[in-house]
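Q: What changes when adenosine-5'-triphosphate is included in the input?
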Amino acid sequence: MIPHPTCLSLDSAEETTRLGEALAAALFPGLLVCLRGNLGAGKSTLAQGIGRGLGLRRMASPSFVLLREYPTSPPLVHGDLYRLQEEEIPSLHLDEYLSQGYVVLLEWAERFQATVFPDRWDLCLETPFLDDPDQPFDRRILRAWGHSAASLSSLERGIHRFTSQEQERKGQR
Ligand SMILES: Nc1ncnc2c1ncn2[C@@H]1O[C@H](COP(=O)(O)OP(=O)(O)OP(=O)(O)O)[C@@H](O)[C@H]1O
Ligand SMILES: [Mg+2]
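A: The predicted holo structure follows.
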């Protein structure tokens, strides 16, 4: 399957949080969600939105414990690989979490060999306009891919939910 990325403009941190909430409704057991992007791109903001959509009031930073598990539906495990060396990653047993039906949500997923998991969303946040005075400073671009039929259709469902909710909000203003 050759996936085409979906591109979205996210004009504020709140909008990114709302995207996460909408995507949470489309998660399914055994899905790997890879959050990619530079320092400050908005990965944790998007992760918090996903957590909120699953009913969590707040997700603590996973930096020091490496992984945090949440008894949501589907169950969630959240990790940030920023400080990890590639050779340390197998000890996290992410494949076991996935086969047990957890959604695995990873920040700095570049450090993980994710390509063996086709039930995967790649969510890449970019900051192409930071130096452009004509663009809002908070603007981020998201490029999103699903890599299997199930991950692609669920991702499309989540993004559709988000774009319809945003249109409704704009219509109400
Ligand atoms: N459109 C946006 N989407 C997400 N965050 C944004 C946006 N605009 C501004 N921000 C702000 O950018 C800052 C950094 O976001 P965040 O911590 O989510 O990034 P990160 O990718 O997790 O960074 P790091 O790699 O350093 O952990 C936050 O203060 C957030 O509120
Ligand atoms: Mg972060």
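Observations recorded in class: Residues 11-124+138-172 form a domain with the Rossmann fold fold (CATH 3.40.50.300).
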